[in-house]
Amino acid sequence: MTSNSVIGDRLASIKHVVLVLSGKGGVGKSSCTVQLALSLASQGRKVGVLDIDLCGPSIPRMLGLEGRQIHQATAGWVPVFADADKRLACMSIGFLLPNKNSSVVWRGPKKNAMIKQFLADVYWGELDYLLIDTPPGTSDEHLAAVEYLQEWNPDGAVIVTTPQAVALSDVKKEINFCTKVGLPLLGLIENMSGFVCPHCAECTNLFSTGGGEGLAKHMDIPFLGRAPIDPNLVMLLEQEDKTIVPNVNDPTAEKLKTESIVDTYQHCELSKIFAAITSQLESRLDKSKQ
Amino acid sequence: MPDSNIPENANEHCPGPESQGAGKADGCAGCPNQEICASQAQGPDPDLPIVTERLSKVRHKLLVLSGKGGVGKSTFTAQLAFALASDESCDVGVVDIDICGPSIPKIMGCEREQIHQSSNGWSPVYVQDNLAVMSIGFMLPDEDSAVIWRGPKKNGMIKQFLKDVDWSSAGKLDYLLFDTPPGTSDEHLSVVQLLKASGITGAVILTTPQEVALQDVRKEIDFCRKANVPILGLVENMAAFVCPSCHGSSLIFYPTTGGADALCRELDIPLLGSIPLDPSIGRACDFGSSFVDTCPESPAAKAFVQVIDRIKQIVDQ
């Protein structure tokens, strides 16, 4: 139990712990986690992002932190900060790999141990939010995270889905997982809901639409919002220099420069949608804490 | 025992985690893994020869892999299976080893079917006379039930799929396709280990063009190389999107680092083809029909056919 109480000490300085889940892969768990973190950080919150997708860590690239190192201090592992004000901290196995091609070929027990170490050893300091990005599925990583956090009452889970039926059936499994392990469901985000053609402004539903909202209603989960595909956001998460405001429709235009990824994100259309999603999420969290 | 099984960071006199003395030798004292090594079954897996026997008459075993989720592994597996099975003399089997998120039953239009047990083993679900499917999706009490299993239980299930499924015509199959979950973990290790003796023809790796996906795919390629799985090639999915109203082409997932093409050149892997993003692919999957049959004229269907032909060519060589 000793190491569990260490986790408790770490979490004592964190106000809210939120897991981002989805049964399906590639629906945008990591990009939603990043966007939630950027929205919260831009509102002055202190946010930590913990990436427990050990076999496919995407958060470092998305936050522009590839190749950065974790430092070991007496207080624990110091996370990597994405901005100068140190409002957005990040921890991922990506920082621990020798090079970008190395695979992490681990079975369950080893993954569990790593997650435990992340929870017990990372020195987050005072945080308003700890967002935990997960791999797809309902297996070792999820059970480990829930098991280690359970005693300290994590706030709950945000579910991410795309609208098509094939994704929804996996996401239903994830919702059942949350119910079974007693993790409160904070809400559902429908991602990749439509794509606006840059040539003719016609919105095409690549993966249909409305499926997420219908599912939320059906499963009685708060619906947090619908986010379309925004090529500028895809670009922002892709490009190495996060201080350049992407403009994929007019690549020849003069590039705007900002201070950090937090500011760059505010130039993306999607930031408004995520600001609304974030404020809904925050008000739910405040209610549940009272 | 081969020394290669000894972890790099093991104690100095580690006997190897699979040896008789694992967890019990003098060198094991103080090793954090001692307890796990000591409690594990020793020696080779007694089920391995049974799996090998069962699959001895399968001509080609193909793995469909990707480090990244949602890039179209299941969609591709299903379309590949449909296309191969359009030749009536070709017997095709599909095993869905994505235990926590089985999509194959839905994509192949055989949801809510049942597995039957006979004296010869489990009978798979037949989508066509020459196309059989096995998935955990057929065994769940209802479609929403979550499979909350840790590694060992998933491995047990995969082993049963390989050992107990009674493929038609005395186990003779031309193709056995494995649809996998994302990542490089239990499921992947298990299937590779279990198939080692009977031989894997190769792996087809799926990716989307953006660097965030390619990153994970690099890891999968590294896994294949470490595990000695031959890589048949890489398929780039969701490459470009053609607007149905103005036919303007746009890139949704930007290939900021050159896409699959650059990765293939960097890592010396054949690029099997590039499939554009077409909303009707997703729709075909939702309805469980063969996309190549429903929209044969679309550019995406033509790209699918090209890729599938190349795969056939490579495996028949």
TrEMBL record, chain A:
One GO cellular component term: centriole
Source organism: Coemansia thaxteri
Binding site for ATP: G23, K24, G25, G26, V27, G28, K29, S30
Molecular function GO labels: 4 iron, 4 sulfur cluster binding; ATP binding; ATP-dependent FeS chaperone activity; metal ion binding
Gene of this entry: CFD1
CDD domains from the UniProt entry: Mrp_NBP35 (cd02037)
Gene Ontology BP terms: iron-sulfur cluster assembly
Family: Belongs to the Mrp/NBP35 ATP-binding proteins family. NUBP2/CFD1 subfamily.
UniProt keyword ATP-binding, yes or no: yes
Location relative to the cell: Cytoplasm, Cytoskeleton, Cilium axoneme; Cytoplasm, Cytoskeleton, Microtubule organizing center, Centrosome, Centriole
Description of how the protein assembles with itself and partners: Heterotetramer of 2 NUBP1 and 2 NUBP2 chains. Interacts with KIFC1. Interacts with NUBP1.
UniProt xrefs under Gene3D superfamilies: P-loop containing nucleotide triphosphate hydrolases
This protein's record includes keyword Nucleotide-binding: yes
Protein name: Cytosolic Fe-S cluster assembly factor cfd1
Keywords for this protein: 4Fe-4S, ATP-binding, Cytoplasm, Iron, Iron-sulfur, Metal-binding, Nucleotide-binding
InterPro entries: Mrp-like_CS, Mrp/NBP35_ATP-bd, NUBP2/Cfd1_eukaryotes, P-loop_NTPase, YlxH/NBP35
Task performed by this protein: Component of the cytosolic iron-sulfur (Fe/S) protein assembly (CIA) machinery. Required for maturation of extramitochondrial Fe-S proteins. The NBP35-CFD1 heterotetramer forms a Fe-S scaffold complex, mediating the de novo assembly of an Fe-S cluster and its transfer to target apoproteins. Component of the cytosolic iron-sulfur (Fe/S) protein assembly (CIA) machinery. Required for maturation of extramitochondrial Fe-S proteins. The NUBP1-NUBP2 heterotetramer forms a Fe-S scaffold complex, mediating the de novo assembly of an Fe-S cluster and its transfer to target apoproteins. Negatively regulates cilium formation and structure.
Binding site for [4Fe-4S] cluster: C197, C200
Domain of life, source organism: Eukaryota
Automatic annotation (TrEMBL), chain B:
Chain sites annotated for binding ATP: G67, K68, G69, G70, V71, G72, K73, S74
Subcellular localization: Cytoplasm; Nucleus
Keywords, in A-Z order: 4Fe-4S, ATP-binding, Cytoplasm, Iron, Iron-sulfur, Metal-binding, Nucleotide-binding
Listed InterPro entries: Mrp/NBP35_ATP-bd, NUBP1/Nbp35, P-loop_NTPase, YlxH/NBP35
GO-annotated cellular components: cytosol; cytosolic [4Fe-4S] assembly scaffold complex; nucleus
Positions that bind [4Fe-4S] cluster 1: C14, C28, C31, C37
Role this protein plays: Component of the cytosolic iron-sulfur (Fe/S) protein assembly (CIA) machinery. Required for maturation of extramitochondrial Fe-S proteins. The NBP35-CFD1 heterotetramer forms a Fe-S scaffold complex, mediating the de novo assembly of an Fe-S cluster and its transfer to target apoproteins.
Protein name: Cytosolic Fe-S cluster assembly factor nbp35
Species of origin: Coemansia thaxteri
Gene expressing this chain: NBP35
